[in-house]
């Protein structure tokens, strides 16, 4: 997929989510002939508050601390250099003390922009691979993916609250008003169905933005496709191995959409890699992943994931070499 095809897919998905939401809300309002403004305002305010305060919540959950330049000079140097290449202001550099190798970018108007790597990532990857991961995360900041995903997440949430409130209304409303109750139940069920449809489109948009951020890293990092491919393969394999032997490694996925790699998929993907134990080189591990056949079950699981299938993702990077 070319860069312009990827851009068009992202814009098309956004337009589809917004268009479907507008259409369904209009139909529901015409059917109900009531004002759902209160529900709409509540959902919007809740999501905006979550966006504004999320960086502080993430810092607390993932034990994130700012990386001191004196302790991590190379990390700061990488972020500074790649930020200049990206044409963005250098974000705050953070370290997350969680037992999985990963990285994420996050921001809000009151907290500013931040890029975080886990301490386990620094011990798992080589310097050039860390650089490629940082290039990916800075791509998210440049493309304003945090703001975009916050906006589109409001729309499924709106229908979830409409559906939930309508179903409750039909269950606990006055028995004398049976016609109204049955109508509310129908609207509630339809709204929940719309919620699931929009959620699937939102997940698809999330996967597209991962491809887009991968491309960004490939353009600003020397030999970016190779470095990022090796980084992603090692992150996936290491996370899967850690989740099998360390129960804590499976308990940090509340904001998994932020991560460069989905920790929930790591264990399954690692098991299905052709027993790549004791691989001689990083390139050999990438080859092992690329040999995998993407099955129908893999494609089905990908539909419910925030991240692309690892094999498809590495193949897309190979096309950029």
What tags apply to this protein structure?
alpha+beta; 321 residues; 7% strand
Description:
- By secondary structure, the chain is of the alpha+beta class.
- It has one domain.
- The protein is globular and about 65 Å long.
What is the overall silhouette? Answer: globular
Give the count of helical stretches: 12
Major sheet characteristics: 4 strands, mixed
Low-confidence segments, ≥5 residues, pLDDT <50? none
How helix-rich are the residues, as a percent range? 55-70%
Strand order of the largest sheet: 1-2-4-3
Helix-strand pattern, N to C?
HHEHEEEHHHHHHHHH
Q: Find the structural class using helix and strand composition.
A: alpha+beta
Compute the gyration radius: what is it?
A: 22 Å
- Beta-strand residue percentage: 5-15%
Number of domains: 1
Q: State the end-to-end CA separation.
A: 14 Å
Mean pLDDT, as a whole number? Answer: 81
Tally of extended strands? Answer: 4
Please give a quick description of this structure:
The protein is an alpha+beta fold and about 325 residues long. It has helices spanning about 5-30, 35-60, 75-85, 120-125, 125-140, 145-170, 180-220, 225-245, 265-270, 280-290, 295-305, 310-320; strands spanning about 65, 90-95, 105-110, 110-120.
């Amino acid at each position: 997929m070319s860069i312009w095809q990827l851009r068009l897919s992202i814009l098309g998905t956004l337009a589809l989510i917004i268009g479907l939401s507008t259409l369904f809300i209009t139909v529901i309002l015409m059917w109900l002939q009531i004002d759902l403004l209160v529900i709409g305002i509540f959902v919007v305010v809740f999501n905006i508050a979550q966006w504004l305060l999320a960086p502080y919540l993430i810092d607390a959950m993932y034990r994130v601390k700012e990386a001191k330049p004196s302790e991590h000079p190379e990390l700061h140097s990488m972020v500074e250099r790649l930020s200049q290449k990206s044409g963005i202001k250098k974000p705050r550099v953070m370290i997350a003390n969680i037992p999985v190798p990963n990285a994420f970018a996050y921001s809000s108007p009151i907290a500013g922009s931040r890029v975080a790597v886990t301490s386990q990532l620094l011990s798992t990857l080589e310097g050039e691979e860390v650089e490629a991961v940082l290039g990916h995360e800075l791509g998210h900041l440049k493309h304003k993916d945090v703001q975009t995903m916050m906006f589109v997440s409001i729309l499924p949430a709106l229908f979830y609250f409409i559906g939930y409130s309508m179903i409750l209304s039909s269950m606990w409303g006055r028995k004398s008003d049976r016609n109204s109750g049955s109508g509310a139940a129908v609207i509630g069920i339809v709204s929940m169905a719309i919620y699931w449809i929009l959620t699937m489109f939102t997940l698809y948009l999330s996967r597209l933005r991962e491809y887009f951020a991968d491309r960004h890293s490939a353009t600003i990092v020397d030999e970016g496709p190779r470095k990022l491919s090796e980084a992603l393969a090692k992150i996936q394999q290491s996370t899967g191995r850690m989740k099998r032997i360390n129960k804590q490694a499976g308990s940090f996925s509340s904001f998994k959409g932020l991560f460069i790699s989905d920790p929930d998929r790591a264990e399954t993907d690692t098991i299905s890699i052709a027993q790549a134990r004791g691989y001689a080189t990083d390139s050999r591990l990438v080859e092992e992943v690329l040999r995998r056949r993407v099955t129908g079950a893999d494609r089905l699981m990908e539909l419910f994931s925030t991240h692309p299938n690892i094999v498809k993702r590495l193949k897309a990077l190979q096309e950029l070499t």
